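Sharing in case it's useful to others searching the archive later.

Someone asked me privately for the predicted structure of Mitotic-spindle organizing protein 1, so I'm posting the question and my answer publicly. Question first, with the sequence:
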Amino acid sequence: MDPEASRNARQSLELAFQMSNILETGLDRHTLSVLVALCEKGLNPESLAALVKELRREPQTNSTTTSAAPTFP
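And my answer, the predicted structure tokens:
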């Protein structure tokens, strides 16, 4: 990636992160960058938003608790 494109990408992510903070989404920069990249790959943003909401609703499990299926933070 050329320096200009890299700088534009960083600025775009920073702007998206500022908007995310204003909207109080609770997303960190890394998570936001992953979600943006998935959208750029063609995933539906509304589906991703629903997935994030669902993952946040799931109860957090203790690391010592045995579970049949893995859970995501």
